[in-house]
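Thread: quick sanity check before group meeting

JM: Hey all, I'm pulling together slides for Thursday and realized we never actually wrote out the predicted structure for the chain we discussed last week. Dropping the sequence here so it's in one place. If anyone has concerns about the input, flag it before I start.
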Amino acid sequence: MPLASRTLSATIDAPYFSTLNDLDTWAARPTNRKLDGVLKYIARPDEEASKQRGKLLVCHDYKPIDRVPKSSARCKAAFFNCKPSLTSHRIFEGDSEEDCLRLLVGHLPQSINGPAKATAGSASLPLSPHYARLLAELAAQRGFDGYLLNFEVPLQGGVEQARTLAAWITVLQAEILDKVGSHGETHWYDSVIFTGQLSWQDRLNSKNLPFFLSSSTIFTNYTWPTSYPNTTAQYFLTLDPALTGNTASPQPQTLQKSLNDIYMGVDVWGRGSYGGGGFGAYKAIEVIAPESLGLSVAFFGQGWTWESEEDKPGFTWEGWWDYDRKLWAGPRDGEVVVVPVPKVPKRNGGYKDEDTPAGPFRSVESFFPRSTPPDPVDLPLHTTFSPGVGRAWFVDGVSVHAMPGGWTDIDKQCTIGDMLWPVPAVKWDDGERESPLPLVVPAFSFEDAWNGGSSMTLDVKCPGSSEEDAVFRCIWVPVQTLSVTPGKTYGASLYYKIDSPAQADVDLGLTVKALPPGSASKFEVQPVPAPDTDSDLPGGWSKLNIQLNIPESQGGARNQAGAIGLVVAIVAEDATVDLDLKIHLGQLNVYPIPPPGTAVSSPMMLWANFTTPASKDAAGMLSWEIAASFPPLGAITVSSPDDPISAWTVQPSNAWFPQFMYFNVYGLLYASDGHVGQPEEAVWLGTTGIVGKSNSLEIVPEDLPFWSEVGDGQNKVRFYIQGVTDHGNVIGWEQCVFVDFDPSGLSA
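JM (edit): ok, ran it. Output follows.
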């Protein structure tokens, strides 16, 4: 997370588990509360409509994890984008047979024990729900949605152990659904077969069918020939509907399966994967055919774009993003993508060039429909266009700390404008014209931001034109998809600034248009005058505010798709001269507006506390609580028990309490005379974030930037906590709190 000191708060409670013993130790502690700083799962509105198409699952074991010796059982934490969701990764390989067995029979006590009465009959391998419960509790506690199960080790118990393992997966699935929610999942990786042997099948067949039927999905190995996707689909369609939950009568005890629950593996590193990986991976996706055949894609090793480039001279985040963007969003005009010609092993030895025909290069996103984010009623849209990295930290347009070495924090990652890449589909906003359209090229800027660590720069190049109407040009630049409910009103705001040449006047507007273009749904958009507090903003930033809605009279589905974007009006002194201007997007927010007659409230901080550590090099815990406040109560006009009015305007029945995305923490040293300054003078210390705790931050006193000035320990320290709401607002100091810390009693 962004911190003034790299060791200020680096403690993540049990970030991974190497053995089941470690998991048991963690589970025995009484402090394993659900992490309140993890964003809860909210389904995308078009999720149901996508069930007939293939999906995308993204999985990578990054280098630091891969360096763990393979001689021990490992629980790898990996991130998987599936609908999208986050899933942990449980891997058994090498000498991990003991834990594979223990997973099934559970945690055994140290006491002498045994069956109450011996039996002459043979019993199967017993199945305990112990670890299924613990793993589901872990998923619920840390906010991920399930597990990818990878058993790359032979099962010494053979068929009997394999049967018990498949049954255990169903117990895990039930626990996941109970503790995580209906979106919980278990993914089976194509490894062990029903005999207990380790034998990758590269497709769905009878050898791995029991594990697929017991899980939510199957993730096949990567080395399949081009006939296997079609063979897999045909095999699935021959299965008895009773096995796949597709009978006419519902079977609540059977997980319903479809073709898109089969994920065909694609290795971006190649390693025998059709297409050779890298920029040739699209060939494998073409054969899987998620659009038509309906199989899904398990895209493994997407970190290839980073790991294959990071050690090259001149490597930068910006250069990496351009490289990575070509794989995912595609090249821009004039850019070249080099597609590898892989060597394919011959059955009789040697290699041959891959000769299966393939079309021209396609980006990964071109195979899958664009999905809108959740309705802002369910999850307000907030973005600072951050990829989760930065070289500085900004608060309301002011750089509060520089970190030349950079910071990384997935908690700060936002949408980066899903309609901007590789370039936005710019259109004239005032009718068709003969003049050539301006070209708009997006790029990250880590040098300037409104909040967070980056902003988005749109480089707008307007070619000169001799057309009569070219003096005034007005273009539409879509930025981000939306999903809204007809009849509800939303607010939207944008922080921006413009660098324009002296020979042109540029004006910017914020608006929303229906998707797809020509849709019957029509957005009503009204500009909202900016309050005085939004004028003369720091850093040269400006702010636009609008209200938007689709009238309820238009009817239609609850979720209507739209695009929020920019209307850019350009007036040129000489239209024949090329113009080059830059638009910087700092922060975009969309949120619901409470209906008329609803009570209003303001977010605030209630209190703060600091638990002093025993020594200056130990961590103390800074914690705080949030609250809501209300405007002064007006005159109460209730005159009798039968008055059909409320004594005051009431709050909505749900989802009204203010929410915070993260908190900025500051510190200020008392002067030697006991005087303490104002919060504006405090030094930024860091933010909450990736550790998953919303209302606390660990502080190691000697890591404070001003610790050397504490002297003999007589100078007290004041900590300030300032929240950032889910509407993107940094609350004023009047709504913030402080807590004092006296370091005089600390041991050296």
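AS: nice. The mean pLDDT is 88. The longest helix spans residues 158-179.
JM: adding both to the slides.
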